[in-house]
Amino acid sequence: MLSNCLVRQEQGVAKTATQGNEKNGEQNAHSAPNYTDKDQPASVHISEELRALLMDHCADTGAEVPAWLQEQVDAEEEAPLARCDETTVEYEAIAGSKVRATWMFENVGEAAWPEELYFRQIRGDGEGYEQKITGVAIEAGAQITISVDVDVPAHPGHHALLFRLAYGEDKAEFGDEVFLNLVSAAEDTTP
Fold first, then answer.
1. Strands (E), 49-142
2. Phi, psi (5° rounding) for residue 49?
3. What pLDDT was estimated at residue 136?
4. Is pLDDT of 40 > 70?
5. How many CB atoms lie within 10 A of CB 69?
6. CA-based nearest residue to 140, from 111, 168, 114
7. How far is 46 from 98, CA to CA, in rounded Å?
8. Letter string b/e over residues 17-34, b meaning 16 or more CB atoms within 10 A of that residue's CB
9. What global pTM score does this model have?
């Protein structure tokens, strides 16, 4: 469904914590468990909310922060930041035709993005599209425009595609999710 991706850079534009309510040395059912490094492999990532909860628990109880948890917190703090003001693109097009969806992302972080990025489709028809973006330095405050040519599905109806920016070997996603809402219409054959 997706045939290619174009990239253009534009410079210079612009607690809730679990409390340790313990009785007689036993953990309350609502207390965070005592995790160790072996309990959570580094390749498994937990949600931002759970990371914050566990970090708060360690701070409140004086427990040592497990290395796997600290690595995830550090990685999140170093992750690039991106914002897209217009996250949804909508088209109505004739089945079998092509449309170009375009989004503009801004680096809203304090550091440049990594020099190797990916623009990935993460949900929708034809899932699995990925475009590697290299050789484009996106400094703090700079913008990048990403366009994707999409083949309109042959079967009429509504099609929703979801994309994200990603970086690194593990292709960690960052920035706003962007959507393409596409209505595929049958060709009008009336004279």
1. 82-83, 88-94, 98-107, 116-123, 130-134
2. -65, -45
3. 84
4. no
5. 21
6. 111
7. 38
8. ebeeeeeeeeeeeeebee
9. 0.63
What is the C-alpha to C-alpha distance for residues 111 and 66, in angstroms, rounded to an integer? 27
Q: 2-13+81-185 sits in which CATH class?
A: mainly beta
Q: Enter the tokens of residue 77.
A: 């703090």
pLDDT band at residue 39 under the 50/70/90 scheme: low
Single-letter code of the amino acid located at 166: A
Phi-psi region of 30 (alpha: psi -120 to 50; beta: other; left: phi over 0): alpha
CA angle 164, 165, 166 (to 5 degrees): 115
Report pLDDT digits (tens) over 84-126.
999 999 999 998 899 999 999 999 998 899 989 999 998 887 6
Q: How confident is the model at residue 68 (pLDDT cuts 50, 70, 90)?
A: confident
Q: Span 148-152, mean pLDDT? A: 89
Q: Higher-confidence residue: 191 or 134? A: 134
Token look-up 């973006």 returns 133
Where helices occur in 13-145 by DSSP H, the ranges are: 48-61, 67-78
- Rounded Cα gap, residues 40 and 58, in angstroms: 15
Domain boundaries, the chain: 2-13+81-185, 37-78
